[in-house]
Amino acid sequence: MKYRRLTKEQLEELHPEFINFLATQSIDAAEWDKIKKDKPEVAEEEIDIFSDLVWEGVLGKAKFLEHISPQTMNLFELREKDMGLISIIVGDNKIDITTATGYKWLQNNLLDEEVKIFTANKTYGEDPNLDKFKLIESGAVITKGDLFRYFDDLMEMGKEKNGF
Q1: Residues with Cβ < 8 Å from 69, sequence gap 6 or more?
Q2: Residues sharing a CB contact under 8 Å with residue 46, sequence separation 6 or more, in sequence order
Q3: CA-to-CA distance for 29 and 31, rounded, in angstroms?
């Protein structure tokens, strides 16, 4: 298994897709029940294969990831050959940017000495989807990229204003 098995809830959500997956292997409902009863290890393998297929599809389509903790915001843009990172670190541990109040403070105090903003680019390893998956497993979530674009635009405006 390349990634991880989908949760029971995820499998339930994808039930129609799983039925289609089994059908492509000429496994109908009666056959599936028989496999689950007589060969549970084969049933487990089928679920694992399906899980990997779903993950491949999801990771291939993902364009942005976010990982936000009380003092750190890591925003990733998932490009074809590499990923861009905008990392925002708040040095004051009394400020929690995961709350509405803390995030508002961050927006109003981006130039505060307690706020550090870094950018980086990282080339993927041998398997870009596996790199993305590791970020998700560490707590990142797939997003539409609104925060990444917001902070990217702010930094671009700052560069223009400062003549860079």
Answers
A1: 98, 139
A2: 21, 22, 25, 27, 35
A3: 5
d(CA 135, CA 9): 21
Q: Under the phi-then-psi rule, with left for phi > 0, alpha for psi from -120 to 50, and beta for the rest, what region is 62?
A: beta
The confidence score (pLDDT) of residue 160 equals 54
- Tokens 């940017």 belong to residue: 97
The CA distance from 10 to 50, in Å, is 12
- Rounded to whole angstroms, how far apart are CA atoms 68 and 98? 7
* Residue 74: closest CA among 55, 97, 95, 58: 97
The answer to whether 15 and 29 have CB atoms below 8 angstroms apart is: no
Secondary structure of residue 22 in the 3-state scheme: helix
Calculated CA dihedral for residues 123, 142, 137, 45, nearest 10 degrees:
-100
pLDDT digits (tens, 9 = 90+) for 17-75: 999 999 998 999 899 999 999 999 999 999 999 999 999 999 999 999 999 999 999 99
| Alpha-helical segments (H) within the chain | 8-13, 15-23, 29-38, 40-61, 100-108, 128-137, 146-161
What is the token pair recorded at 116?
Answer: 């550090």
